[in-house]
Amino acid sequence: MTALTTTGWWRDESREPLRRNLGLIGVLVALFGIGAIIRPDLYGDPQWVVDNTLVILQQAAAIGVVTVGMTFVIIGGGIDLSVGALIALAGVWSTTVATQSFGAGGMIFTAIIVGVLAGLVNGVLIAYGRLVPFIATLAMLVAARGLAAQISGKQTQVSNDQFINGLASSKVLGIPSLVLVLLAVAGLGWVLLNRTTFGRRTVAIGGNQEAARLAGINVRRHTMLLYALSGLCCGIAAIMLTSLATSSQAAAAELYELDAIAAAIIGGTLLSGGRGTVTGSLIGVVVFATITNLFAIANLPTEVQNMVKGGIIVFAVLVQQLKFKSVKQLLTRT
Amino acid sequence: MATRRNMLLGGAVLGALAAAGCTSNETPSGNAQTKGPDAGNPNAAPGKKITIGFSAPAADHGWIAAITNNAKAQAATYSDVTFKQVEAGKDAAAQRAVLETLIAEKPDVIVLLPHDGKELNAFGLKAMNAGIPVVNLDRAFPDALAYRCQIKGDNYGMGVAAGHYIGKALKAKNIASPIIGEIAGMDELELTQERSQGFKAALATYGFTVANRRAARFTADTGQKEAQNLLQALPKMDALWNHDDDQGIGVLAAINAASRNEFLMVGGAGSKKAIEDIAGDKSVLKATVTYSPSMASSAISLARLIGQNKGMADLVELQVPKEVILASETITKENAQTYLKLGF
Questions:
Q1: How close, in Å, is residue B103 to chain A by CA atoms?
Q2: What's the pTM?
Q3: Which end of chain B, N or C, is less packed with Cβ atoms under 10 Å?
Q4: Partner residue opposite A55 with nearest CB, options B61, B187, B232
């Protein structure tokens, strides 16, 4: 590819994700700079900066795992609105008194099975029931939150498992365990997307479903598996969130679906499918976590933070269009 | 290949069965806040048989779940009360629809916690006009004609109580300009604003201000997130008020994970777990200010008296008062045992 084009990497189509990621990292650096101006007392302390970076990464961990699954679904041409609800359902199911009696292993197993099965239901409805992904996962969102409220009796369920509760505060080689979980999931996701036929098929289906079908790809089965994969990520995230909050409840992971979609979008995943990277999504998640953290440091209210988040989403998508067309084309296109 | 796939499938099915077996939830949470008929109380003797209609929003939150449980349990302590609960649905419009059917059934009294006091004010008027007294629970109708009796908590007072506890404690420690953090609940709700205003006003009487305020969403996971960021913003803190004990589970998890203990923390609402933590004195949580769902039990008792045309035995008046505003009480290690039965 590079041999064919004589232009530099900044114009090269195949380097588009790299440029975008560098842009997002630029945003991170800018956010750090703003923080350093607002609170020089904190940002001047190297130990605090390291601690704070780890806090940001830890806050990005659970939503990051969800975003990896979401990235696959969106690249495959779908959308999963049920992720927040599935986290709540898996979290609540794995923290019932009965499940907790099986110990940490039982809790993790339950969360993952609940996530995968609920994801499979999404997948079957969409792939074989021919429901529009938006509708099917919207229905799952409502139903899963309802079931979670039913199971929990609308109460906050406290986790009494020392292993689960200790997971969030434990570190391996100075890095929080949850961040390592995120890195592992993202690493596996990267390999799956870029180095396996599963990944190539996902891109092919998202790019052109009919062409993919004619090329001999079992589109239905593959679509179903994509939603199960998203459900799996929700199950993992449910355990992470339970560990952080030492509890779970039906209202947990509120609006995670929108956070995950937003992170994937600003990370360069095309909402219409066929294109996207795990790395980009991951940096997108970190950008949002950094904004939340910075606003807390600066003691600015949540409503301002939400407005800025919205602005960044719009800005990122605008930039996305600029990269593909000239400024003139962008302004004159109908 | 086929066998491998079958094994996977078999594993999944087994897993599903195992998971399905795990829904049972035998939490010892059935202890509602009730007060059975007192032998010495002239109102204790069964009176005229009445039906009390009840409606409160469906809850995904511990406090509001406790409201419904308490109302139900309190009604069950009276042999002369038939309790008729209607599901409130998910918003004000849905609640209005089910309440229409409730009026048609002509209960003797209606106890109502509306989704929104302003939006359901018209229903209160309609029921009152139909001759059914309405006991308005917690979320207030703006129009005094829309209810016979209003019983509610004191959000402003809750903030005041938290502010005074923290103010006094820090004065006692001789800290001149303390660093005080606040983790509020859902910021778009009026009640959150009232709590914060009360907190600010009470702190001001000591010359103190809030250094950093974060708003969570009444859930443990958001409490954890906001607390984690707050702790980063304030590397040294003297006191922290967290508005809600449910989200406090997450707040305490963040504090423990960061190994921070240089400050004292005050909670809000008065959950059973928070009261137990305070009694045990093992964490930074030293007090909680109540906003107790026990008001639902009292609302049923008041509704019964209204339905039977009786007054409150200790008062001179022959009728139930028009308004009851619960005082926000401060639970500390010293009185935690007394309040444990009121924890939800």
A1: 28
A2: 0.86
A3: N
A4: B232
